[in-house]
Amino acid sequence: MSAEQTFAEKSQKTFVSASDKAENRTMKPSSLFFIWFAANLTIGDFAIGFIPISLGMPVDYAIVALVMGNITGGILLGMMSMTGSLTGKPQMALSLGPFGRLGSRVLAVLQWGNTLGWLTVNLVLASFALHVIISGVSFLIPIFIVTAIVFALAYSGHNWIRRFEIAMSAVLGVMFAAISIRYFTTFSSTYSYHPSIQDPLVAFGITLASSFSYIMAWGPYASDYSRFTRKNDRPRRSFGFTFAGGAIASFWIEIIGMAVAITAHGAISNPAIALAGYMGAYAAIGMISLFLGGIAANAINLFSNATSLNTAISRLTRNRALIIGVIVSLALGIIGYNNFYGFYETFLFILDYWITPWLGILIAHYFILGRNSPPSVASYSGISAYVLAILISVPFMSPGAVFEGPLAFYLGSVDVSYYISFFASMILYITFNNLFRVNHARGAKPLG
Question: Is the pLDDT reported for residue 8 higher than 50?
């Protein structure tokens, strides 16, 4: 048995309890709608709705940016969900095909960092909401409560997470519907917001990138759940239900966030407090919605966080991987509690830089090339294309005050690097794959 095969089997078996083994594929694709609908009815999406208003963006242009971001990000999420239905493998094991053992381990570490960041984001935001409900106590109390609930859910395994997400899709759907109804029944012209002057192109680009980043960042999780769908169901159904659940929920909650931001006159220091003021006597509904939404998102985050860490360090047990993720996210949540938004916006941009070329290569490998390349050819192609695509996109990067590429400066600080790296990685992977395959067939060592 080859090292690649051994690693693939370990990756596929990682963090799978007796009740949710990959070969037990009995889940209906329609369940994916509820999983991703509930996972995106969160305060993370809600907070994104504050971004265009704080940047001084007209509402109609903001809506266009949010629609574009959710459609493009939702397509990537749906494509990754399809790969799980096609192969029955978790996301980290899928990376073995185009990246090989070493590349897959590196990506598993990056994905662990990605899930860790989202654990922290949703931990802080859900704690914001819970702190409003139980005001008068230290902010550490709600942080510990949220952490304990999320750990219990992730520890219970995939089946319990799925049941919880389905229940939350109904509960949160009703609660956010009530918030939406309040907006339409209390709207008046006094809610108009007159922002400070901002370059509209920059504001549009930041809003688009933020919305795209949020839903796209679920892509590395998607196969972890779609791999349980029934073998005889068409993979396209997994795409459709995943895309619909994720994109509809994300756009809806972002629009609610925009409405609340307008009434708060752009103040975004604490979105939970802004929503409480917006809901008035019904503030409890809003706070419970944000709290439960954070729990729903973080149950998935912690489950996949442990999966990624187990893939990178196969000797870790399920419980140890969970405990490590909980402890690190808890520490980061405590540190970042009072300086949330600076971290959040930069974090969303950084996600684009490494996830989009990864997803581009996975799509090329599983949907365009058909997984026909020899393992050594595919891994050299994947690693080379990934690194080069990121380097090509660097001049287009503009992650806040950290760095601004020369082409991003020319474009008015609008960051389009994630689109560049996504398409570049696909084109380069296909090109390198064909080149390395010819050399492989001739008996030459692959380039790189």
Answer: no
